[in-house]
Amino acid sequence: MELGERIQRLSDLSREDLLNIKDPAGKVVARQHSPAFASENLALAQQAKDLIGQIPDQVSASEYLTVALAFDVSGRSEESHELAVDGLAKPGDSLTFISLRRMNAKALYQMGKTSEGREQLALALNLAESLPAEDRQWSRASQHIFWSALEKRAGNCVEMAVREQEAERELGSMSVSARRSQLEEQLRGVGKDCA
User: Could you tell me the pTM of the whole model?
Assistant: First the structure.
């Protein structure tokens, strides 16, 4: 299996292997991967990383992102960080770079490097300015929600509240739409409690 096939399988695997978690009334409240997912995901990610090491000049930023995400899902922050940094050195579009910066930030937070993670998130917010107008507000709101969740997990309650306020401000200036409703639901999912 070549790099492209492994990356395609990683993409397919993350969509295919989701199990519905239902509440007592039968309503789907969450989705999670099956136990078999973890081993296949990590094996494919490691194989893809090894291949990337052999042909780094032939790998796109989006391919780096896919493999970094696979390592993130497997709880391997160091590998995710390494691949995100390498992916940022490749040519790519704004959305790919925003995603790589966010992935890198998440890995840095998980490695205890909060200030470096914040720098990556600030750069991702700046990149949102290059997006078409209809995507700009959505991207900024989404990024503030993501940032707020990272701050909450790190126990940084003041910064979490600041990011939630920024997300609410961005959401307030968006027109009513399915995209806005989805982001509002994500923000509620972060919650206001912080310890």
Answer: 0.83
